[in-house]
Amino acid sequence: MTLPNKHIRPSLQFLIFIALTIGIIGVGYLIGAAAVIGLFGTNILMDIAQFNLTNPNAAKALWVLQIVSTTIPIIAASVIFAYAIVKDPKEYLKSTFKFPWILLVITFCVMMISSPLIEYLSNINQKMVLPHFLDGFQKWMRDAEDQAQKLTAVLLQMKTIWSMIFKLIVVGLLTAIVEEFMFRGCIQTIFTKWTGNIHAAIWITAALFSAFHMEFFGFLPRMMLGVLFGYFVAWSGSIWTAVWGHFINNGTAVIVSYLFQNKMIKINPDDQHIFNYGAYLFSLIFVLFLLYLYYNIATGKKKMPVL
Question: What is the DSSP code string of 111-161?
Fold first, then answer.
């Protein structure tokens, strides 16, 4: 039996994890780029780099790069770190299924009812204006946001139900698993040890989670999601409650985008002015109530059956 490595300081753990992740992503990108060149030719990489996404193979190439250079490397880094570096996968991956099943129902309700609250934070974020001496930085942030949205639009083009199912699996499920193992598994655990405060660890991890997506005008709503996921894991002791919540968030976006693109609904998934202030207040109050209920059940103050 391999004993956990308790001699690595949390600050050093964080540096090792970041270096390991960057290294594996770098290798993944080289493999992904080689695969794209082999499948679609050399010009496709230049087109993607220049955001010339009219190339008919752009979407396919982006998916290859996404999966090979990001999705697989991140989960690989988390697993390698937990098993080979700190040698404590139970604590750093938290993959246990031993938690009250009702938490999954509460998580679903939280994710659905938090939509107005997330919209409110998004609207605040969109109005963010930096001081004049940071105009150049703000322009860079806006350009980066626009580029990210263009890439997302290409990746989420769905003309058939099978295309939607594929993206529901990759964007919804796989991304949720990968990012939760990375952030709420490894990084949140590291910061819990580093700060000695679970709340600080959750908020720091949520900020890093949001920054990781490089969409600065969506920083606040994504950070709020990260906070929710963080408490789901901290209170239940299982990564799967956060994976479920993350999947609901991403999966809902995929399904709504599919329905809108195929003219089955009129609600534009990019519209950030759907709810009113009454809905925002209701959302905040009910989410807090559900989190209170989640906490009491997860910590055993209300007895419920476990999976």
Answer: HHHTHHHHHHHHHHHHT----GGGHHHHHHHHHHHHHHHHHHHHHT---SH
Closest alpha carbon to 188 in 10, 24, 2? 10
Q: For tokens 């230049």, what's the residue? A: 46
- Say how many residues make up the chain: 307
Rounded CA-CA distance 88/12 in Å is: 16
Kindly report, residue by residue over 75-111, the tens digit of the pLDDT. 999 999 999 999 999 999 999 999 999 999 999 999 9
Distances from the Cα of 201 to the Cα of 28, 52, 211, 294, angstroms: 29, 40, 15, 19
Beta carbons of 138 and 214 less than 8 angstroms apart: no
Tokens of 228: 């929710």
3-state secondary structure of 306: strand
Query: For residue range 22-31, what is the model confidence (pLDDT) as tens digits?
Result: 999 999 999 9
The reported pTM is 0.92
CA atoms within 13 A on the CB side of 180: 30
